[in-house]
Amino acid sequence: MSLITVGTMAFDAIETPFGKTDKIIGGSATYVAYAASNFVQPIQQISIVGYDFPQEEMDELKKRGVQLEGVEIVPDKKSFFWSGRYHIDMNTRDTLVTDLNVLADFNPKVPESYQGAEFLMLGNLMPKLQMSVIDQLTKRPKLIVMDTMNFWMETAMEDLLAVLKKVDVLLVNDGEARQLSGEFSLVKAARAIMNMGPRFLIIKKGEHGALLFHENHVFFAPALPLEDVFDPTGAGDTFAGGFIGHIAKTKDISFENMKTAIIVGSAMASFCVEKFGANRMKEITKEDIDARLEAFVQLVNFDIDLV
Ligand code: AMP
Q: In which order are the strands placed within the sheet that holds 210-214?
């Protein structure tokens, strides 16, 4: 039950109304790997870092069954750097800096040992590179899931539309769904986006949960109401990691099982926001995850008599 994950491994500097960090470890593939490795191992990671990425962080990932043969280390360049500032609602943010560094010349190579993987999670990355990974796979995975962001809609829309034709599931937030489709109604946006390629669409709405669309069906997963949210960075990637982790563990790609998978994604994301960066993801145990999933069941479970 192998899973390939692709995306950035990065340094982030984050400002929220509650605090500020210097450079800490982030990146879309880092969060995906931390979340997914709770459900499935090995994780076969594809990414790129510079000379400055700490060996201890690589070792930490390896301990969780993350294979790093597909992670290129560039000896004379810096790692990707991203900096963002959250607004008071913690649901929206401004990007302050995007320094591509090593990412500027990234040409991902799928190691021979990764071939035959059943599941592919394309984390947020240049659409051209996401496409290159799909093209290198000798056997099409059972399910290809893709995350993206507004940055690529503004700078690489043509490439993005080309990858969309090749994937099964797309994950975007509500603003991105509206931007991509030109529709305000999320139902109309979903229909338009599914016409671009993906058979399934997940629209994340931050603290207001997530919607899963497929054909004429729609399912809603709430976000857990939390007393304190310290840092939403990586919540989307962590959601994606929980989603694909559950699917890869169960090997069931039905709409019914995807409903469970978006609850698992929401549960994992609820941990991520409790501390800065990926710190909370490094602490949690199976017992913590089970207790949180039980909290989700309680959150939405009710009886009703229709007379
Ligand atoms: P999220 O909060 O889930 O949207 O993801 C935040 C993570 O995405 C951060 O750790 C960043 O390093 C990474 N990131 C930010 N901008 C980009 C980008 N343009 N491409 C890929 N990864 C990015």
A: 66-73, 43-49, 3-6, 119-122, 143-147, 169-173, 200-204, 210-214, 217-221
d(CA 268, CA 242): 6
Residue 127 Cβ inside 6 Å of ligand 1? The answer reads no
CA distances (Å), 188 to each of 122, 145, 164, in order?
25, 21, 17
Q: What is the pTM of this model?
A: 0.96
Tens-place pLDDT, residues 31-58: 999 999 999 999 999 999 999 999 999 9
**30 C-alpha to center of ligand 1: Å?**
10
Instruction: Delimit the domains of the chain by residue range.
Output: 3-300
Query: Which fold does the domain 3-300 belong to in CATH?
Result: UDP-N-acetylmuramoyl-L-alanine:D-glutamate ligase (3.40.1190)
**Other C-beta atoms within 10 Å of 126: how many?**
22
H/E segment holding residue 216: none
Measure CA of the first residue to CA of the last residue in the chain; give whole Å.
47
Ligand 1 pocket test: which of 24, 32, 87, 149 has the largest number of ligand atoms within 8 Å of its C-beta? Answer: 149
State if residue 12 touches ligand 1 by the CB under 6 angstroms criterion: yes
